[in-house]
Amino acid sequence: MNGNEHEHVIEVTDLRRVYGGGFEAVRGITFSVGRGEIFALLGTNGAGKTSTVELLEGLARPAGGRVRVLGHDPHAERAAVRHRTGVMLQEGGFPSELTVAETARMWGGCVSGAMPEAEALDLVGLGRRAGVRVKQLSGGERRRLDLALALLGKPEVLFLDEPTTGLDAEGRRDTWALVGELRDAGTTVLLTTHYLEEAENLADRLAILHEGRIAAAGTPAEVTAAQPSRITFELPQGYFVGDLPPLDDMGVREHEIDGRVVRLRTHELQRTATRLLVWADTAGVELRRLDVRPASLEEAFLGIAREAAGAAEKKEYAA
Amino acid sequence: MTTAMTTPVGRMAALARAEVTLLGRSRGTLFAAMFVPLLLPFSVREAAKGMDLAEAGLSLGTVVLPASIGFSLLYAVYATLVSVYTARREELVLKRLRTGELKDTEILAGAALPAVVTGLAQSLVLAVGCAVLLDVGAPEAPHLAVLGLLLGVVLCASLGAVTASFTRTVESAQVTTLPVVFLSMIFSGMFVPLEVLPDRVASVCELLPLTPVITLLRGGWTGDLSAYEAIGPVLTGLAWTVLGVLAVRRWFRWEPRH
């Protein structure tokens, strides 16, 4: 690592994007990505991930706010940025009648300092498919071709919009390994995904987008830590919630009862679990269907979606 | 380490090379671009035989030759480019290219190069063919012929990009290109020389985009067009080119409608 360790390669301030019809896809988001960092934008479809990435790639001008990539405005100062970035769009972008090798040659001619095309194809395991037309590739192979072309110029900054959509489990792991190696070699990576596992595995930091806003951000551990852990069990016959030790005392934040099933949410998993198990042991009862689950990114993600749905419902009632 | 930077010429060459490959693989476009312009002159020849050309100071050759080059510009350049730009946009190729180092004008120019070269080569073949077969001879005012040809190429390329902006699919390009193709054929002095039309009709026809191109080409061969008379067509042609470029900047779509 050099002295630029903390340099912000990507800086986004109060970014907004409004489409022609007036739809506000990005509603004021702020984040930054340091050199050699993998940053994931996570969100459901329509959360604003692609709309955001396209602004970072310089494909469109923001309706408001500021984007800087390597210190430049990627839209207005395109020439200063483009030879240092690699882009993988969410979808295709290659003439279907060209072969893999012809496509790579076309791109190679348009990329400064390109590595040999065959080398890039080998990186993603497409070397043996060089003579095949793009239209005959599977969805996963097309994604890998796109990745190979994004890597051709050995970019400092890599934008990957859903890089593993359509890949099988093995292909996904290969891509993760490759992206991890690039990061270790100093490449800054911004990726979007709706696979939580992908963000959890790859990202140094992430932001969860919801309806054009950042709902949560930080390292995967930080985002997860803000979420409660969960304990679920079935109350033994003849017992009621009131028979448990006082919930406050157990560190329980919230509880839900669904028939005989009790769901506890806590930020102190060990304390809550210990009190519960000691109680069960002392009472000599068995807690059926016991499930103790630490907070996960998935919980965080679902929690955000749930909160948003709840808010939308409230709004409807009010109306 | 210093990185070898790409140049505009290098980038456009890479793009053009891919487009040549694609043109070779698209039979329909290839046929329309290569053969239609070479076949159409025969029909003009039949039509022209029935006109009183001598009275207008024209010959069969000086009618058929500019018309042939006009066809080439319309089919090999204009119609081909409408298909090319539309196909590349719909396959998201244009969007993908815009993420790279190519500038917008380089993308449009690089993709247009094979069609433009085809059009120019065809024009040359047609000119030589007509010169020999129809006894037209060499152009009397070659500078006007060259000017007309260059104007035609730039104009047809920009009109192609404008038309592609309003074309949803490659199939619908067969329809969206018809207005320009037919209006030009009938009213720009290709099938019917403006000289044999009533004056009032002719003066309206002079304002059409391809008319100045045909006028300059014909004048180039006959040598009847004085420098003063050439100003009008040149200005009209330039005006259309500027309009075309502005229209591309205003309306050209780089990605499909959502």
Automatic annotation (TrEMBL), chain A:
Q: How does it sit in the membrane?
A: Peripheral membrane protein
- Tell me the PROSITE patterns matching this sequence: ABC_TRANSPORTER_1, ABC_TRANSPORTER_2
Matching entries from InterPro entries are given as: AAA+_ATPase, ABC_transporter-like_ATP-bd, ABC_transporter-like_CS, ABC_transporter_ATP-binding, P-loop_NTPase
Query: Which Gene Ontology molecular-function terms are recorded?
Result: ATP binding; ATP hydrolysis activity
Alphabetically, which GO biological process terms does the record hold? response to antibiotic
Question: Where in the cell is the protein located?
Answer: Cell membrane
List the PANTHER family hit by this protein, alphabetically.
ABC TRANSPORTER ATP-BINDING PROTEIN
Q: What is this protein called?
A: Multidrug ABC transporter ATPase
Native species = Streptomyces viridochromogenes
Automatic annotation (TrEMBL), chain B:
The organism sits in which domain of life? Bacteria
Per the record, the similarity remark reads: Belongs to the ABC-2 integral membrane protein family.
Single GO molecular-function term? ABC-type transporter activity
Protein's organism = Streptomyces viridochromogenes
User: What are the subcellular locations of this protein?
Assistant: Cell membrane; Membrane
The record's section on InterPro entries has: ABC-2_transporter, ABC2_TM, ABC2_TM_bact-type
- What membrane topology is annotated for this entry? Multi-pass membrane protein
**Pfam families from the entry?**
ABC2_membrane (PF01061)
Descriptive protein name: Transport permease protein
Q: Where are the transmembrane segments?
A: 63-86, 107-134, 146-166, 173-194, 230-248
Q: Which UniProt keywords apply?
A: Cell membrane, Membrane, Transmembrane, Transmembrane helix, Transport
Q: Where is the ABC transmembrane type-2 domain?
A: 28-251
> Which N-terminal residues, if any, form the signal peptide?
none
Offer a single GO CC term for the protein.
plasma membrane
